[in-house]
Amino acid sequence: MKTTVLSMLTLCAIAMAPAAMAQTPQQKKDGNGAKPERRYERLTKTLGLSEAQVKELKEVDAKFEAVKVETRQKMQQATAERDSLVKKVLTPEQYTKMLEMRLDGRKVRRAEMRAPRGERMAPPCCPADSVDCPQHDRLMHRHRK
Hints:
By secondary structure, the protein is mostly helical.
């Protein structure tokens, strides 16, 4: 009886652990992966910022974040409007094919970005072991196909 109750409690704890972790609020991170407060602490330490400067930086960052959100929403609306107009012009088959092409392009770009940097930078037409590209007469890391 005790082992059954204990095993049931253990199973419940294991089952609830992911849900409990999912409910913790996520801190917003800056580009370096640090929490915003740590960023301000680091800037204060390295640049010798005053409290007033830190406060102004926080206001600037908040304003910029609001602009980013607003711009993202405008772009989403513009994209939706463009897609509805394109849908009126194309046949259903053409529109479906266009959406598939768009998805395929995204998959290719994602795969390219996941590739090691050296493989991403050299176009497939150039020899991989060469520093210069004989076909394009430039350094390989300076151009793309």
